[in-house]
Amino acid sequence: MQFFLEVLIGGLLSGVMYSFVALGFVLIYKASGVFNFAQGAMVFFAALTFVGILELGVPFWIALVLAFGAMVLLGIGTERIVLRPMVNQPPIALFMATIGLTFFVEGLAQAMWGASVRGLDLGIQDEPIEWMMEATGIGVSKFDLFAAGVAAVLVTALALFFQYTRVGRALRAVADDHQAALSIGIPLQTIWRIVWAVAGFVALVAGLIWGARNGVQFALTFTALKALPVLILGGFTSVPGAIVGGLIIGSSEKLAEVYLGAYVGGGIDSWFPYVMALAFLLIRPEGLFGEKHIDRV
Amino acid sequence: MLYREAGQFKATYAADQQIFPIRQDRIGIQLLLALAFVAVPLFASEYWLKAIMVPFLVFSLAALGLNILTGYAGQLSLGSAAFMAVGAFASYNFMLRIDGMPLLVAFALGGLMAALVGIAFGLPSLRIKGFYLAVATLAAQFFIVWLLTKVGWFSNDSSSGVITAQEMVILGYRFDSPQAKYLLVLSIVAVMALMAKNMVRSSVGRAWMAVRDMDVAAEVIGIRIMYTKLLAFAVSSFYCGVAGALYAFAYLGTVEPEGFNLDLSFKILFMIIIGGVGSISGAFLGSAFIVLLPIFLDVLVQDVFAGLLSPSIASNMQLMVFGGLIIFFLIVEPHGLARLWQIAKEKLRLWPFPH
């Protein structure tokens, strides 16, 4: 029981990590209907830019502001150069354009800062909490709890933003129907710039958390792939769904690896989330919190 | 004027419906085939045959398969490499476990095994579409690579899943030399390309295009959606399976499951994007582009920027150029290189007049 709880908690906390990337997808999909496959590359770019600026001797918080500025520029540049010329293209073409963007951002990041692995220290150690270990025997990492806290704050802020601010309402209107939003005077270009800037910020947060955990390296770009099952479960259009989906995927992935892996040779965490998402799709295609889509002929 | 069909009359249905109704097109394709079958083996160097022509043909076949699924049937797939892996490993196992198994039959059976796997992972397409289907094919991609790595039976109990393809022998003739391998791959690709062209011109192809354009309306007018979609997955996976077998037997020789990873799937997806989605010739144009571009960039860096750029920066620049070109193509010519070729032919009909 104690071991089970430890595996479950560890899985839940690793699911939070996936949620960070899924949030970026949700934001852009909500606002513009684009499935931004380059979110993973943007996470890598954000982390590498931050570490690169740190290595130049810039203090922590100034480096954070500069990295945020770089991410905002990248997001706005993406919307301006890549997606605006492709208005009215079918979604599959936009999806493919973001795959091309993935390669570009990966090459750009490594060309600017080099490809070596770098450590990232946020001041919080990845070690168990002592009093909890003594009281219950369950090891929970301080860093994991910190990440969960950051995720909670981020999701709360985003949910409040979408629900209770003027810009948030405009974003939801744009996501529903671009033409209708235009007709009542919402400036589409400004809204898209805002949403890409916010997605850039989310990518920066994700990059810092993932980079501190795994080191800043090329493999960060593959975090995007694990976010896909999270999106399937949580729905492409729900900010809280990204967290719930992340928790479910993270915990089921670890539990499956620990309890089922022994029978089939291990390593099943590489594909188990996708198969689970696939099974879920056949039952409820729009996800737990997603909006039901009705076909028009 | 040289490209007009003035004076070319059709007196029979067969003449009217042929693949190349214009005489100039027929002459052009005959010259191209003569070039491919006769001139290239005679004059091309071993490097060109082994490192450029054979992978170009293998990837063209895989791109053909993906184009049938994504370009004609409209089903998004990120699992092409997994179906190639199934084809490669199945062919290997048929050759290994059945004495006297003919090579071409092993390739065909490898394709059939890939088709069966494609149908299994195509079942979700009956209920989901678009990006959701991409996740389903990602499940295929990761699961198949994991299965081929972990289950030792598929690789004859090789500890890392690596297999070495058997020798290619047909009726006692051994395909050892680069010319022989090239001609074998070329023959297979030519025949399968012709089959694909005829398939998409038939009622099956028209059903695929109807499903792609609007599946609800297609169902309303009587097209069987389930059969049509699963057939697209089966045919596509068959082509990818045969391409995977050729990839293992005629190109690399030694393969491992990790070699058929997601990057390879993306590569094949880009071939059909750049070459032209929904175009048979686009698969070849896109494949040529993807195979030649890195080589061209390498040569360019070596000759023009020798010593100015470090190798690591040069390779990252290559990535940026690659990604940038994809975006560029999608913006300025969403229908790919095949469309440019078509436009060129239209211009030729009016030449020397401007419009």
UniProtKB/TrEMBL annotation, chain A:
Principal location listed in the UniProt entry: membrane
Protein species of origin: Azospira restricta
Protein name from the UniProt record: Branched-chain amino acid ABC transporter permease
InterPro entries named in the record: ABC_transp_permease (IPR001851), BCAA_transport_permease (IPR052157)
Record key words, sorted: Amino-acid transport, Cell membrane, Membrane, Transmembrane, Transmembrane helix, Transport
Family per record: Belongs to the binding-protein-dependent transport system permease family. LivHM subfamily.
Entry's Gene Ontology molecular function annotations: transmembrane transporter activity
Ranges annotated as spanning the membrane: 6-27, 60-82, 94-113, 143-162, 191-210, 230-250, 262-283
Domain of life: Bacteria
Subcellular location: Cell membrane
Protein's GO biological process: amino acid transport
Any one annotated GO CC term: plasma membrane
Topology term for the membrane: Multi-pass membrane protein
TrEMBL record, chain B:
Location(s) in or outside the cell: Cell membrane
CDD domains the record matches: TM_PBP1_LivM_like
Pfam families to which the protein is assigned, alphabetical: BPD_transp_2
Transmembrane segments: 27-45, 51-69, 101-123, 130-149, 182-200, 230-253, 268-301, 313-332
Record-linked InterPro entries: ABC_transp_permease (IPR001851), LivM-like (IPR043428)
Membrane topology: Multi-pass membrane protein
Entry GO terms, CC: plasma membrane
Keyword Cell membrane: yes
UniProt GO MF annotations: branched-chain amino acid transmembrane transporter activity
Protein name per UniProt: Branched-chain amino acid ABC transporter permease
Alphabetical UniProt keywords: Cell membrane, Membrane, Transmembrane, Transmembrane helix
